[in-house]
Specification:
This protein has 226 residues and is of the alpha/beta class. The chain has helices at residues 18-32, 39-57, 63-78, 84-95, 105-113, 126-136, 148-151, 158-166, 183-192, 218-224, and strands spanning 6-9, 117-122, 144-147, 176-180, 196-200, 213-215. It has two domains: 6-16 and 101-224, HAD superfamily/HAD-like (Rossmann fold, 3-Layer(aba) Sandwich), CATH 3.40.50; 18-95, Putative phosphatase, domain 2 (DNA polymerase, domain 1), CATH 1.10.150.240. The protein has a six-stranded parallel beta sheet with strand order 3-2-1-4-5-6, sandwiched between helices. Strand 4 (176-180), helix 9 (183-192) and strand 5 (196-200) form a beta-alpha-beta unit. Helix 1 (18-32) packs across helix 4. The longest helix has 19 residues, at 39-57.
């Protein structure tokens, strides 16, 4: 039987299919602003967006700057004349509507919730993540949701995890485990907070830090916490 009473689960690419949501949202932006959508457009925007969020994790940029700067860089790269601020606003509106689950996420959350108290811990824009999680249908399995913009700090910062730990019933760190796909935010953040970690890695990513557990599928994740 699992020794953990509480699991802190990341959202994007752990439970939610963010690449699918991002693709759908940027396609809607392209359609609205008369930009021919293709794989190069998708891949370039995704690369720009990922790089900026990595800068946020390191404290090199603010969340508000990300909203517009990703579209400034995107427009500059392709020579797009559309207003980058308008694109940024519309993208956030579109992204909010996509709570696309990874296959099996609903089943695994239902199973885990029968033996553990579950909480979402996610970096992102508060209104966007809250709406996506609502649309995903996962919220009934969770006792709470912690979003970086609402907290005022993001993973892997210790302040983020201190806030989470101060606002959940379980106070024994040995009974709490962080579950996520990101080495730089979930695993490093959990380690720095003195928590056990489970690296969810169906993507074959490198283990830069040493998690307590690694699960390469939802089946392995369930076995870890059975």
């Amino acid at each position: 039987m699992s020794k953990y009473t509480t699991l802190l689960l990341d959202a994007d690419e752990t439970l939610l299919d963010f690449p699918a949501a991002e693709k759908a949202a940027i396609k809607m932006v392209c359609d609205k602003f008369g930009i021919g959508f293709n794989e190069e457009i998708r891949a370039t925007f995704s690369s720009i967006n990922n790089a900026l969020w990595k800068q946020l994790e390191k404290g090199l940029i603010t969340r508000n700057l990300i909203r517009t700067r990703r579209f400034e860089q995107f427009a500059e790269h392709f020579g797009i004349k559309a207003d980058s601020n308008e694109m940024a606003v519309y993208y956030v509106e579109c992204l909010s509507t996509f709570g696309i689950l990874l296959p099996g996420a609903d089943e695994v959350c239902k199973a885990l919730s029968q033996k553990h108290n579950l909480y979402i811990i996610t970096n992102g824009i508060g209104t966007v993540q809250a709406e996506r999680l609502k649309r995903s249908g996962l919220l009934p399995y969770f006792s709470g949701v912690f979003i970086s913009e609402d907290i005022g700090s993001q993973k892997p910062n210790r302040e983020f995890f201190d806030h989470v730990l101060a606002n959940i019933p379980e106070k024994d760190k040995s009974k709490i485990c962080v579950v996520g796909d990101s080495m730089s935010s979930d695993i490093l953040g959990g380690i720095n907070a003195g928590l056990d970690t489970c690296f969810f890695n169906p993507w074959g990513r490198e283990e830069i830090y040493k998690p307590t557990y690694t699960a390469n599928s939802f089946e392995e994740l369930l076995c870890t916490f059975r």
